[in-house]
Design a protein that fits this description.
By secondary structure, this protein is of the alpha/beta class. 33% of the residues lie in helices and 28% in strands. The strands form 3 sheets. It has a 6-stranded mixed beta sheet, with helices on both faces. A 4-stranded antiparallel beta sheet has the order 2-1-4-5, with helices on one face.
């Protein structure tokens, strides 16, 4: 479903991604791990078409189509989704209005207010969220956990074909992490999709089981393996693959 071929990316003249190759199949969960500064979030932004980043070599193929130079909104309409590591506040725009607008941009026939409200309540109940959530302004005054749950609610409503979750576990305590992890699993029970799960630690992988784990260090994929690789990283850190990150940091 998603294939990255020899991707090289620069920002302000500095090369960040140095020949990345990866593949995520339909219905597959791929955990993309690595130390801070390795280029993981850069990859997520480039996959969604952020104009700040310059692709100097390589291709991004989605569902057999070359989307390397496609605009972000066109990628989203084709079913590509990004959950941000640091979601922005949008004062004055309710969660409900934001999601209905986003959903209608993907549909041929706009969904009416009544039908959308039923859909939204169904997804809110699925994720065990308070219904007052949908009337709040998007991310305004939200805790870190609430912001991440709002991202997962977007995932549930928009039902993309391919989801990129950029450090969804960042800043979450254990309880919030469990809620988010269980929420993703409930969505996967109802909707088949590929997931590229970008993370620094393996905590979220206790709740979302990956089919494959890939390690990025200094802008390159240096190793890949099964889900057991995440446990190895938790035990010994990334030093084995050329990073100076200590094992003790990996266990935080």
């Amino acid at each position: 479903m998603l294939e990255v071929r020899d991707l090289h990316v620069c920002i302000e003249g500095k090369e960040i991604l140095k020949g990345v190759n990866l593949q995520v199949n339909d219905g597959e969960i791929v955990a993309f791990m690595g130390p801070n500064g390795s280029g993981k979030s850069t990859l997520s932004y480039v996959l969604m078409g952020h104009p700040k980043y310059e692709i100097t070599k390589g291709k991004i193929i989605y569902n057999g189509e070359d989307i390397t130079n496609m605009e972000p909104d066109e990628r989203a309409k084709r079913g590509l989704f990004l959950s941000f590591q640091y979601p922005h506040e949008i004062p004055g725009v309710s969660v409900s209005n934001f999601l209905r607008t986003a959903l209608n941009s993907k549909r041929k026939d706009p969904i009416n207010v009544i039908d959308f409200r039923k859909l939204l309540i169904e997804k809110i109940d699925l994720l065990k969220m308070d219904k007052s959530f949908m009337n709040r302004y998007l991310n305004e005054g939200f805790s870190g956990g609430e912001k991440k749950r709002a991202e997962i609610l977007q995932l549930a409503v928009l039902e993309p074909k391919m989801a990129i979750l950029d450090e969804t576990d960042s800043g979450l305590d254990r309880d919030a992490l469990k809620i988010v992890g269980e929420g993703v699993n409930k969505i996967l029970e109802k909707n088949r999709m590929g997931i590229l799960l970008i993370t620094h630690y393996n905590r979220i992988l206790h709740y979302i089981k990956p089919d494959k784990v890939m390690i990025m260090v200094d802008g390159k994929v240096v190793h890949q393996g099964g889900s057991e690789l995440a446990d190895e990283i938790e035990a010994s850190g990334y030093a084995r693959w050329g990073s100076q990150e200590l094992a003790s940091e990996a266990e935080v």
